[in-house]
Design brief:
single chain, alpha/beta, Aspartate Aminotransferase, domain 1, 12 helices, binds pyridoxal-5'-phosphate
């Protein structure tokens, strides 16, 4: 394939690999780089996959996904997200990443413009360019004071050429969750506009904000134009299984169905059976885990509060916090290199999430509270040496 712009490596993969290598050499690295939960895939899910394999769910199957799984996803969407759809409006994909790629490839044409929110999950930009190498990308930075959407700026950017807006809440990397006023603002700005809203909700169940996750697809004004992206990777610790899904109205579904037929054929059927078992887990299944993420987020906030060179807008959901290191005078790459080399703590430089964010670093909240606390103390010590 000929691409007009260079596609970057996946940064998150590079960083977690480095931390794993150093750990393998016996160096006691504390990783703040992890982008996946650290609990094992639930046993009931593993059992369901094994059973389905034995039952012969090992052959080509429906490109849209097994009907029983799509029905279960519809029930989940209605119950948890307030999104009312038929099973023909749901397609099971190999991970949320592929759902995003298929969505972008189905809606973008040469010369179309896309608004992307920064900082962002680093795969969005390559994915836009893979889907449509001639796409024009406009970046909209979140507000610095609280990571909320700058709706005034968004309004200015929304020309008739803009055909898609990508959002992701709970947000990677800031941990910001979409608020009701932000959602209403999106409804006000986008309704009746010829612009798709691609809403990546992969972190929806990792929520320690005490408030409900809001899905744009539940809003009548946005329901027709919203493409909801979700998956099993983060909620059920199934990152290696590669299963996600895409929810959209018929015009999009017609195209993504054809793309899926030619690109992926179908998602592994026994993994779809495992996903069905995951959806049957009780609502309370993540309660303890969310408590742990909250405890780590609070621990970080406590230490930042007594470290003058650091600032933090508390994280509300997802797996990350985005720490402001501007007062240290270092750029994020230099800061993170020193942190790992001198204090053996791996964090991800903010620059990887957007050019204007080199004065931030991303801290993953995923690790046991004892290691997390030690990592944050090492971070504090390191900052103390920077003068
Ligand atoms: C915002 C966001 N979207 C999508 C993905 C990819 O999810 P999946 O593993 O289902 O492809 C990630 C993974 O880190 C992510 O952070």
């Amino acid at each position: 394939m000929k691409l007009s712009r260079e596609i970057q490596d996946s940064i998150e993969l590079r960083f977690s690999t480095l931390a794993r290598q150093m750990n393998g050499r016996g160096e006691r690295i504390i990783s703040f780089g992890l982008g996946e939960p650290d609990f094992p895939t639930p046993p009931a899910v593993v059992e369901a996959a094994t059973k389905a394999m034995r039952q012969g769910y090992t052959r080509y199957s429906n490109p849209m996904g097994l009907p029983e799984l799509r029905e279960a996803i519809c029930t989940k969407l209605a119950r948890e997200n307030g999104i009312q759809v038929r099973s023909g409006e749901v397609m099971v994909t190999p991970g949320a990443k592929m759902a995003l790629s298929l969505a972008l490839a189905s809606v973008l044409r040469p010369g179309d413009e896309v608004i992307n929110i920064l900082p962002c999950y680093p795969s969005y930009l390559p994915q836009i360019l893979i889907a449509e190498p001639e796409a024009v990308i406009h970046n909209l930075d979140l507000r610095r004071e609280n990571f909320s959407l700058d709706l005034d700026r968004l309004e200015q950017m929304l020309s008739p050429k803009v055909k898609a807006l990508i959002i992701n809440f709970p947000h990677n990397p800031t941990g910001h969750m979409l608020s009701r006023p932000e959602l209403n603002g999106l409804g006000h700005l986008l309704a009746e506009r010829d612009c798709w809203l691609i809403s990546d909700e992969i972190y929806e169940r990792l929520n320690f904000s005490g408030t409900r996750h809001l899905s744009p697809g539940s809003m009548p004004a946005l329901a027709e134009q919203t493409i909801t992206i979700n998956g099993f990777s983060k909620t059920y610790s199934m990152t290696g299984w590669r299963i996600g899904y895409l929810v959209a109205k018929e015009p999009v579904m017609k195209i993504v169905n054809k793309l899926q037929q030619h690109l992926n054929t179908n998602v592994v059927p026994f993994i779809q059976k495992a996903a069905l078992a995951a959806l049957a887990l009780p609502d309370s299944f993540l309660d303890d885990y969310n408590q742990r993420l909250l405890a780590n987020a609070q621990r970080l906030a406590e230490i930042v509060a007594v470290t003058p060179a650091l600032r933090l807008q508390p994280s509300e959901g997802g797996l990350f916090a985005f720490l402001d290191i501007s007062q240290t005078g270092l750029d994020s790459d230099t800061f993170c290199s020193g942190l790992i080399e001198r204090y053996m703590v791996a964090a991800t430089p903010g620059i990887y999430f957007g050019p204007a964010w080199e004065d931030h670093i991303r801290i993953s909240l995923v690790t046991d509270t004892v290691s997390f606390t030690e990592g944050v103390q090492r971070l504090q010590e390191y900052v103390g040496t920077l003068g």
